[in-house]
Write a structure and sequence with these properties.
Elements (H helix, E strand, L loop, with lengths): L1 H19 L2 H10 L2 H11 L2 H18 L3 H14 L3 H16 L4 H15 L5 H17 L3 H12 L5 H9 L4 H14 L5 E2 L13 E2 L12 E7 L6 H9 L6 E7 L6 H11 L3 E5 L6 H11 L4 E4 L5 E2 L3 H11 L5 E10 L4 E2 L8 E3 L5 E3 H8 L9 H13 L4 E11 L1 E2 L18 H14 L34 E9 L6 H13 L3 E5 L13 H4 L7 E4 L4 E10 L13 E11 L4 E2 L2 E2 L3 H12 L3 E5 L2 H10 L16
Parallel strand pairs: 3-4, 3-6, 4-5, 8-12, 8-13, 14-15, 14-17, 15-16, 17-18, 18-21
Antiparallel strand pairs: 1-2, 6-11, 7-12, 8-9, 8-10, 8-11, 19-20
Length: 646
């Protein structure tokens, strides 16, 4: 009877959540519910569909966050092929569409287009249909099928006059006049003043962005501190400053913090400061990254509200006014953000990993009440990147989710998307998901947040409150020949706890000045996403450090525990040059009738990672004897030691 009752409840609830509600409505509903209530709802509707959705999320996590592209894509395609539930199959098809479309290649575009019919089959949600149309148009455009792409957007526009569709249409136009026409339809939609390109009609660039001069707001009594960190920004900072000087809310101070730029950034800013007393030039003592620069400015800020502007990003003249007025009217709100749309230097809108959306919340546009925020949570985390999300988490924890608002303003900022970052190929970059260093940062901060007595961060930060990988340190480590040096590096899947691995780390830590840990993943959908807390508690960022993708490391010994982590290829592994490599064989290739690894696969992947000879060491005599008895032929692929690890 209980299962029948759950089925009766789960179907309409499922239909309501994923067909009737759009994405923003689901997020808003989620923000209203406590974790306890959300967990009860999950238990109520738990069934095959929820299990399948969770499995799909796990596959995506391995594909994106863990960089296991070959195995992950195979698993996603298999999941799609085997899905029986129409909703689950449609969702899996959409995930395949996104994967292939986000490759931004002709092959990827063709693959995505073949799957779009399955992703849209019996889809009634208008938001999702719009996203599908935008992705379809992008793929057609990449294949030089511009007319078909325009027809796709035009057809959707007959059903949905949405600003994302206006921007999609702008991307399909060749002339700047037609582009502007569609871009300005998006601004009109939000009752914002329209933009132009300094009177030019050909060869326009991002730095030609402008709008008509708007009348300043009268009686703008509330002062805003605008913080603008800058590094090597001489060519773009004028665009940012000019857009801020054109704001309708004129009661502000602009605190520009130069981060030891070797170019003429300081000279450019000083010229502005000489003409406008609201502009103040500050500097970091040594190059430390934008968040240290922000903290220096925050100490100097005198405004009631504080907000941020990146050094080469254009802001709409109504941006400050809209966010200020919202805070003035809603005194209980502690912070808000506005929306943005990323624009390339070739005047094309860029999704940056968001699925079929060009306009989305701009975390860097945060405007907050200075005194209560500094009193409660202090300053930004002193890292080189990714601290916006950490700052937001502390705000939500300390003030409550209802006091932080992502305003649906339309694109009040058009952040510059440089050509060099379009692929999201940077090891430390963000393209819609956490990988490598950012994944490690999130896990470390969450571990700290869940245990800290308070979430106040001082500045200067004399000692880190929780460990972060070296690429995030404001003061980077000296690197002889471009590589950091460790005597010992231990690599395994730290999501899996074993006492033996924990003891190995402790033993090596006692013997050596410092050791590095490297996360290498098994493809296992049953494992937790995070590093096991027993290992996490040992990482102090000094004696025991987590090494991440994008780092270059030289070590005496690289010890890889558990061959299973070498079975599937993965991208997000640091570049390590070891003098000696050991693989500790602590389990057999086949256990309980299931094959976990193949020696030839493991050796192939090991060679691609480290290009070094390797000694395979059985964990104990029992493992050795079974290897020799049952896998003697396979052992020809490897060099087996004549001693055991234990």
């Amino acid at each position: 009877m209980k299962n029948i009752f759950k089925k009766i409840l789960s179907f309409p609830m499922d239909w309501f959540l994923f067909t009737v509600l759009n994405e923003n409505q689901r997020k808003f509903l989620s923000s209203l519910l406590s974790e306890n209530v959300k967990e009860k709802i999950k238990r109520l509707i738990s069934g095959k569909k929820l299990i399948e959705r969770n499995k799909l999320q796990k596959i995506k996590y391995h594909l994106y966050n863990l960089g296991m592209e070959e195995k992950g894509l195979d698993a996603l395609e298999e999941f799609y092929g085997n899905a029986k539930d129409p909703y689950i199959k449609r969702t899996a098809a959409w995930e395949l569409v996104l994967w292939h479309a986000n490759q931004y290649s002709e092959h990827g575009a063709r693959k995505a287009l073949t799957l779009i019919p399955a992703a849209s089959l019996k889809q009634r949600n208008k938001d999702q249909l719009r996203r599908i149309a935008i992705i379809k148009a992008e793929c057609l455009d990449l294949l030089n099928k511009g007319q078909e792409a325009r027809e796709t957007i035009d057809q959707m526009l007959t059903l949905d006059k949405h600003p994302d569709l206006f921007l999609a249409k702008a991307n399909l136009e060749n002339s700047i006049e037609k582009k502007l026409n569609w871009i300005n339809k998006a601004f009109d939609y939000y009752n914002l003043s329209t933009i132009s390109f300094s009177g030019k009609t050909v060869s326009v660039s991002y730095d030609d962005l402008s709008t008509e001069v708007l009348e300043p707001v009268e009686n703008a009594e509330t002062k805003v501190s605008i913080i603008l960190p800058a590094y090597n920004a001489e060519t773009g900072i004028q665009t940012a400053i000019n857009s801020l000087l054109a704001q309708t809310w004129q009661n502000f101070e602009l605190l520009v913090v130069d981060d030891c730029s070797p170019d003429d950034t300081v000279k450019v800013v000083r010229e502005y400061a000489e003409k406008d007393s609201r502009i103040k030039l500050l500097n970091t003592p040594i190059n430390s990254g934008p968040y240290v620069a922000r903290n220096i400015a925050l100490k100097e800020a005198t405004g009631e509200f504080v907000t941020i502007n990146d050094s080469d990003d254009w802001s709409h003249p109504q941006k400050i006014e809209i966010q200020v007025k919202h805070l003035l009217v809603n005194e209980h709100i502690i912070a808000n953000t506005s929306e943005h749309a990323r624009l390339t230097e070739e005047i094309k809108l860029y999704r940056r990993g968001t699925p079929g959306k060009y306009i989305f919340p701009n975390m860097s546009s945060i405007m907050f009440r200075r005194k209560p925020v500094i009193e409660k949570i202090g300053f930004w985390d002193s890292v080189r990147f990714a601290a916006d999300g950490e700052f937001k988490r502390r705000l939500l924890k300390e003030f409550g989710v209802q006091r932080y608002v992502d305003l649906q303003t339309g694109p009040l900022s058009l952040p510059r998307q440089s050509v060099s970052s379009l692929t999201g190929s940077s090891a430390f970059g963000y393209n819609g998901f956490f990988k490598g260093v950012r994944k490690e940062y999130v896990e470390s901060l969450e571990y700290y947040h869940n245990r800290a007595d308070n979430l106040y961060y001082p500045y200067p930060q004399m000692k880190r409150l929780f460990p972060v990988p070296e690429p995030m340190w404001p003061l980077r480590e000296e690197k002889p020949f471009g590589k950091r040096h460790f005597e010992i590096v231990i690599a395994t899947d730290f999501r899996v706890y074993t006492m033996a691995t924990l003891n190995e780390i402790k033993r090596r830590s006692n013997l050596h000045e410092r050791i590095g840990l490297v996360q290498i993943n098994q493809f296992n959908l049953d494992l937790d996403n995070k590093t096991n807390e027993a290992y996490r508690s040992l990482i102090d960022g000094e004696k025991i450090q987590m090494l991440v993708y994008g780092e270059k490391i030289k070590c005496l010994k690289l010890i890889i525990i558990n061959p299973v982590v070498l079975e599937a290829s993965q991208h997000y592994i640091p570049d390590i040059e070891p003098e000696e490599v050991y693989v500790v064989v602590n389990r057999l290739p086949v256990e309980n009738g299931q094959r976990y690894y193949h020696f030839n696969n493991c050796k192939q992947h090991l060679t691609s990672y480290y290009n070094s000879n390797c000694i395979w060491v059985p964990y104990d005599s029992s493992i050795r004897n079974k290897l020799l008895e049952e896998y003697n032929e396979e052992l020809n692929h490897i060099s087996l030691s004549n001693y055991d690890w234990k």
